[in-house]
Every structure is written in C-alpha cells, then in structure tokens.
Amino acid sequence: MQKFDKHFLLGASTAAHQVEGNNTNSDFWAMEQIPGSLFKEPSLDAVDHYNRFREDIDLMAAAGLNAYRFSIEWARIQPTKDSFDAKEIQHYREMLEYCHQKGIKPIVTLHHFSSPKWLITEGGWEAESTADLFADYARYVIIELGDQMDYVCTINEANMGLQLTKIMHEMAAKMQGQVQVGINTDIGKVMAERMAGLSKVFGGLDPRKISHFLSGRTPAGDLVIIHAHEKARDAIKAVCPHLKVGITLSLHDFQALPGGEERAHAELDEELLHYLPHLQKDDFIGVQNYSRKLVGPDGIVPPPEGTELTQMNYEFYPQGIANVIRTVASHFHKPILVTENGIGTADDSRRQVFIQEALRGIQACLDEGIPVKGYLHWTLMDNFEWMLGFEPTFGLIAVDRTTQRRYPKPSLQLLGSYCCRN
Fold first, then answer.
1. Residue 110: how many CB atoms within 10 A of its CB?
2. What's the pLDDT tens digit per position in 361-381?
3. Which pTM does this prediction carry?
4. CB 152 within 8 A of CB 245
C-alpha cells in the first residue's frame, strides 16, 4: 500500500448540526420540531460532539489521520441578528486549539446547510441582504479565530439548491437517491399542519416564502449564494490574507451514453461550470462526490440492473471521485481538496473497499500532476442525516446514542493507514 506524502491532508468531515446536538437557534432545529415535519426524527443531542469533540479528535489522531474538516455553526455564533456570542467563539477556539495539539490540521466550513432562525425571517437564501449578513458573520469569526486556521470553506455545497429544485420538478419518490443529501421525499404528510407550524416558528412568515438553504432555489437565489461566497471570501482575505479560501460543490460523475453528450454537458454546466467565473479569486475548490450519473439523450437514466446500491440508493461507485477531480481540473486550474466522499452502508467491509478504490483513484490523479491537496472522508461518525434522521450510516465511527459511546470501525484505521505523518 502506498502512503500519501506527509503534506497531503487525509482525514474526515462533519457538519455542526449533524453532530453537535441542541442547535436550538437554527432553522433546521425549528423545522424538526413542528407538527407534520418532513424530518423523520429530530436531531436532539445528535452525537454530542459539542461536548465530546476532544474524544472524537483523539480517535482521529490515534488512527493516524492528520486533518479534520468541521463547520462552525452560524446560529450559535450569532443567535440573534444583533448579537454575537463570545462563549461560542471560545468553544470553537478550543476545538481549533485541540486539533493543533493533536497534530490535526483543522479545515473550517463557515456554513453547512443550517442557518440562524432569524435569517429566515429576514428573507433567507433568496434575499440579497443575506450575502452581506453572511459576510459580516464570516468577518467576525475570522477576526476572532483566524489565527488558528489555514483553510476556510465559506459555503458547503453552494449548488445544492439547484439540485433540489430539479428533483422537486420531477417525481420525488422515483428520483430518490439522485441528490447527494439526505432528503425525505414522503409527500403523504398533512401539509396544512406543516405549513401552519412553519409559519409559527418563523414569525408568521408565509410558508411559501420560507427559504432555508435546502429549499428549492431560483436563479436569483443561486446568485445570492454565490454573492455571499464572494463577499465572505473578500472579507476573510481583508482580515487574514494568509488564509486559503474556497467553496465546496456537490458534483456527480456525469457519464454520457451514446447521444447523451449534449445533455451531460448541460448537467455539468448547472453543477459546476456556471460558478467558475465567480471563483477565480479563490485559493482552492472543495469537491464532493458520492456516485456517478449516466446521461442519455433524454437525460439521466437509472443504473444498470443488478447494480449495487447504497443506503441512499446511490450506485456503489468509488471511481467517481477521481473522474470528478479530472473534470474539475480541466476547467479550474487551482488546487483541489476533496471535502466529502463516502458511502452510506451498514457493512463496513464495503466502506473499506470504497475507501481503497477511492484513494487509488486519488493517487492516480496525483501521479497525473493534478494538484489534489487532500481527501476528507464523509463522515467521521454515524450522525443525523438531515431529513432521513439517524438511519443512514456514513461514519468511520459508530455511536450508541443511548450512551453516546464511540465504537471505531475498521474503516477508520484503514483510512489512517494511508497517512504519512512524519
């Protein structure tokens, strides 16, 4: 087995709302609690990473990993529009410092899907004012914590809203598994009850105008998100010019079948290409991939009959990440960081195979001269997979949520064995 260079960032990723627990000021927490919620269950304590982060970082270090991508929760830092919480800043400072103590490079994401509840009442992710509000939050965090950082991802999967809009325009039940996030497509719930609950928790707002990050996205809303990234990036650079700043995108490995070349290019343009003019001042791009999509003349076609599927109904296809890297590198001539790649499965032996195949592809990209700076597996621990609750298991570590005891899986040690820390 070939180890990666000692400068290669090899580790795992998490998202604050999915692991910390009790993120009570966030929009997702509010939506989880309402009658008729589309969430299968609420996050509650999640896996208590907020209190147990040292234990979890210890497990990464013991396995040999050298990098950890985690998100800072905007709703904790800025619980109301007019206030910032110094106690929460101190909490994340302690996380950053502990990573450094353990020889683990922290890679910080400033927004990973969940937002402050108050932001939604201000118009959410369809309001142009959100771009400035996000930049103000980013500036505050970097002023307070930038001395502890090297890599910053502004927004996780900035293109997710467009992917969700597409799936909403099709038969959701038929298309489940074609979008890289845990979405509950059960449309049999009592919508009137849910709408009333949404209006109540968001200050009487018309439920049809509620725009959280995973709402369907209009073209104008897509621009709001990319403007938020640009303004945050510029604010970060003004405070700490040394920081490497980028964004992450959810990218499929589009493979054109005969006659599907034009449609495949259109899919790539929607997921990647139309963002690139806005990313020219970035230092890197974060790529996130879980599978491939086959594209025929009429659009996406199902995987071949008999294909192995994961818990999320994705095709088991670890080769996808290398293909995506090559595609991105042909259009974006700056460093690439794999910020998510993984598999939802109860069979850790399949996760191990997935990791081995994915890393083989990463090494091939490096051998081709592509500047891949690191690989961050999704995810560190089995966690709260958004609307699908705790059922999907993507983690390198299992968690007994009754006791919150951690059980490292063999895949954690396998991933760490590829890391050269000397």
1. 24
2. 999 999 999 999 999 999 999
3. 0.95
4. yes
